[in-house]
């Protein structure tokens, strides 16, 4: 039995070496096919990013152009287009802005009593969120804030509940300040930045609440958690900050030095490389995860679920 265990271990090591050799050959081939700058014409996005990567000691990377219908296809088709090992190796970079929703007013509407259940609707002012309100004579009033964020596949909805009021009485309204401190206007403090770029898998569901908890923790609880309210940055704002348009956002060569948060799930991929935006809508960048981490120095946070 012990011999079998040793053989399995050796076999696993051999297979891992073969995979790494195949990846190395794949990246080398891709790099050799990349056009070199032969004249003083305008520099392309690909050549510019390649130069940045190489000058920072990153060599295991490749660029690939995708067809115009790429984002109209399912993840399985995108995987095949990029020759990726799985759909989980397909990732995106999203720009989040901290505390931009303003004050959120929790307003509980008039209760309608029907068979012992009180039903009402509240509205969140400024953020655009909606508060679903229910209450019962014994359970008190409960609101569930509907939090939405956009992805290329549509809007995903999550519910986060809190209890107000009690004993069947109507709940009360209140103001919750979710704005970042007025001193937080840029990205100079990576622990308390105005913006963050989060890299997550397309196949996973991003959790803004987890990132909020992480930022609260990394600041040793000195900043109220409500100050780390996160939302997707408007497309125009994202483009201005990064220099890249939607679906082309990448963490390499951004106009602004925005702190990056890498979802921990990406670090566990096998093989250890992934695909993300390459600076243009139809250009994708594949990069070895370990070298990406060395270059970008992101926070690594478990901020998604499947």
Overview of this structure, please?
The chain is of the alpha+beta class and 306 residues long. It folds into two domains: 87-99 and 179-305, YbaK/aminoacyl-tRNA synthetase-associated domain (YbaK protein, Alpha-Beta Complex), CATH 3.90.960.10; 103-177, no CATH class. Helix content is 27%, strand content 31%. The chain has seven helices and 17 strands. The chain has helices at residues 2-33, 45-55, 75-82, 208-218, 235-242, 264-267, 289-296; strands at 61-65, 91-98, 103-106, 112-114, 117-123, 130-136, 140-151, 154-164, 174-177, 195-201, 205-206, 230-232, 260-263, 273-280, 283-288, 299-301, 304-305. Strand 7 (140-151) and strand 8 (154-164) form a beta hairpin. Mean pLDDT is 75; it is low at 26-39 and 101-178. Residues 193-292 form the YbaK/aminoacyl-tRNA synthetase-associated domain. GO terms for molecular function: aminoacyl-tRNA deacylase activity.
Concise structural overview:
Helix content is 27%, strand content 31%. By secondary structure, it is of the alpha+beta class.
Features:
306 residues, alpha+beta, YbaK protein, five-stranded antiparallel sheet, 7 helices, globular, YbaK/aa-tRNA-synth-assoc-dom, YbaK/aa-tRNA-synt-asso_dom_sf, aminoacyl-tRNA deacylase activity
- Fraction of residues in H or I helices: 25-40%
CATH class wording of the largest domain: Alpha Beta
| H and E string | HHEHEEEEEEEEEEHEHEHEEHEE
Total domain modules: 2
Number of strands: 17
Domain YbaK/aminoacyl-tRNA synthetase-associated: 193-292
Protein name: YbaK/aminoacyl-tRNA synthetase-associated domain-containing protein
InterPro entries: YbaK/aa-tRNA-synt-asso_dom_sf, YbaK/aa-tRNA-synth-assoc-dom
GO molecular function, one term: aminoacyl-tRNA deacylase activity
């Amino acid at each position: 039995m012990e011999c079998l265990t040793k053989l399995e271990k050796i076999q696993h090591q051999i297979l891992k070496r073969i995979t790494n050799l195949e990846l190395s050959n794949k990246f080398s081939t891709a790099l050799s096919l990349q056009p070199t700058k032969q004249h003083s014409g305008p520099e392309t996005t690909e050549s510019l990013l390649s130069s940045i990567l190489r000058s920072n000691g990153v060599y295991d990377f490749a660029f690939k152009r995708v067809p115009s219908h790429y984002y109209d296809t399912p993840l399985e088709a995108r995987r095949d287009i990029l020759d990726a090992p799985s759909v989980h190796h397909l990732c995106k970079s999203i720009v989040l802005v901290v505390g931009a929703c303003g004050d959120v007013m929790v307003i509980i509407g008039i209760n309608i009593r029907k068979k012992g259940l009180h039903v009402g609707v509240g509205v969140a002012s400024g953020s655009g969120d909606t508060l679903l309100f229910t209450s019962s004579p014994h359970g008190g009033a409960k609101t569930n804030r509907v939090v939405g964020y956009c992805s290329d596949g549509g809007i995903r909805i999550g519910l986060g509940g809190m209890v107000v009021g009690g004993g069947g009485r109507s709940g009360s309204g209140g103001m919750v300040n979710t704005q970042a401190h007025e001193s937080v206007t840029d990205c100079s403090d990576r622990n308390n930045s105005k913006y963050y770029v989060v890299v997550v898998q397309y196949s996973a569901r991003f959790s803004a609440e987890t990132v909020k908890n992480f930022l609260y923790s990394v600041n040793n609880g000195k900043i109220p958690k409500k100050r780390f309210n996160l939302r997707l940055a408007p497309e125009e704002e994202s483009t201005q900050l990064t220099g890249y348009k939607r679906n082309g956002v990448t963490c390499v060569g951004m106009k602004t030095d925005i702190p990056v948060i890498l979802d921990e799930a990406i670090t566990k991929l096998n093989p250890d490389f992934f695909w993300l935006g390459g600076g243009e809508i139809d250009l994708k960048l594949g990069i070895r995860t370990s070298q990406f981490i060395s270059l970008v120095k992101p926070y690594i946070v478990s901020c998604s679920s499947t």
